[in-house]
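To the wet lab folks,

You asked to see what we're planning to order before we commit. Fair enough. Below is the target structure as tokens, and below that is the sequence we designed to fit it. If anything looks off to you, flag it before the synthesis order goes out.
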């Protein structure tokens, strides 16, 4: 499954065992602890990088870029070349899944994603049989990146969580409060359940194929999980994620999986206990002592610098980085932001963050 990775011998406990040479991100997810945590940033490939903007101009539409393996692999590697992060995250988007299921998806310059809003007939017409064929260029990108990436770096694949992807499919666009999907979930819960069920099948298939192509770890982004009440969170976030984890592990038994239920707050504990993830992403509103005392004993914690502090830089950013390191470096921890990097973020601030996290 893993391509071009040498096996090496290391001393562990009393005897010598052969393990796959691997990156620090997956080692932390497997239970190791490092005093200096591994580091990557959500949305690290993107518009804050001049080299991304230059390539993006030549690539045609955003989806054309996502489906061009040579260009998508180049963009995936750009932040590693510039900042030497510990992990590369596949350059793609969560909305390639509705596209592969047969829905129309477009990215409008300066506005964001646009889809045909889905209804009961549309849900019945979804076709999960074509993930392998329609997303073939993504798997080629994964294989190409794994081939080029140093063996001590991790390649992270990803997908959107069913709830978050459904919010875009139902509304046809991003919305401030995800009301269209929440209304469908409340009024027509069986129809909405059938949409979530289809997305569980498609997402698990998609992640399994990313692992087979060479991904070392996958992350599932549930960017809008924070708008749901307790019962809705159980049904639309925890249960689908547990089903995805189970389906992926049935095919890839040692699959390393990070869940990022943004805004989940007090529900994080149950999310961790009931989904079976190896790592959990936390946003910047999660108190560090809660993360340390209630989560870190069970999973690897990943986060949680406010992206606006990375944008701000200076003393405010330094202090926040130090607090996070002091709070979480004692256990299994991956340094990251609490959500994606903002396009306006100065490169110099990212360089400063990398130096500070690594103790420079
Ligand atoms: O560097 C990386 O993290 C890898 C690439 C990546 C993109 N999108 C590229 C992208 C990842 C992991 C995503 C995830 C994604 N996409 C999420 C979940 C994470 C989050 O931020 O909450 C969501 C909700 C989306 C949906 C999406 N894609 C929106 C709302 C938009 C428009 C707004 C925006 O951020 O630009 C996109 C477009 C998109 N996805 C861009 C990039 C680099 C910008 C498109 C461009 O370059 O023109």
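Sequence we intend to order:
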């Amino acid at each position: 499954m893993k391509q071009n990775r040498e096996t090496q011998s290391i001393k562990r406990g009393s005897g010598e065992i052969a393990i796959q040479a691997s990156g620090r991100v997956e080692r932390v997810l497997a239970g190791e602890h490092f005093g200096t945590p591994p580091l990557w940033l959500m949305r690290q490939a993107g518009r804050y990088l001049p080299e991304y903007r230059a390539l993006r101009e030549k690539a045609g539409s955003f989806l054309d870029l996502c489906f061009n393996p040579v260009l998508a692999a180049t963009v995936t590697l750009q932040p590693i070349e510039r900042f030497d992060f510990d992990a590369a995250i596949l350059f793609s988007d969560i909305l390639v899944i509705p596209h592969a299921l047969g829905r129309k998806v477009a990215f409008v310059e300066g506005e964001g994603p646009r889809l045909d809003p889905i209804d009961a007939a549309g849900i019945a017409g979804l076709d999960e049989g074509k993930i392998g064929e329609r997303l073939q260029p993504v798997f080629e990108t994964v294989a190409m990146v794994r081939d080029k990436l140093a063996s001590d770096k991790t390649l992270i694949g990803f997908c959107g969580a069913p709830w978050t992807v459904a919010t875009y499919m139902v509304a046809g666009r991003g919305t401030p409060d995800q009301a269209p999907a929440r209304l469908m979930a409340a009024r027509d819960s069986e129809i909405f359940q059938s949409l979530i069920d289809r997305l569980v099948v498609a997402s698990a298939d998609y992640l399994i194929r990313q692992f087979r192509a060479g991904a070392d770890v996958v992350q599932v982004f549930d960017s809008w999980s924070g708008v749901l009440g307790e019962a809705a969170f159980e049904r639309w976030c925890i249960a689908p994620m547990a089903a995805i984890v189970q389906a992926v592990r049935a095919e890839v038994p040692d699959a390393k999986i990070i869940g990022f239920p943004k805004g989940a707050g007090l529900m994080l504990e149950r999310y961790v206990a009931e989904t079976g993830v190896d790592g959990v992403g936390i946003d910047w509103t999660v108190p560090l002592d809660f993360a340390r005392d209630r989560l870190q004993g069970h999973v690897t914690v990943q986060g949680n610098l406010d992206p606006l502090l990375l944008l701000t830089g200076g003393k405010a950013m330094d202090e926040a980085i130090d607090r996070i390191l002091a709070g979480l470096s004692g256990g299994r921890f991956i340094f990251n932001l609490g959500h994606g990097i903002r396009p306006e973020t100065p490169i110099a601030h990212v360089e400063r963050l990398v130096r500070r996290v690594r103790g420079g």
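Structural context that might help your review: The CA atoms of residues 11 and 120 lie 57 Å apart. The radius of gyration is 19 Å.

Thanks,
Computational group
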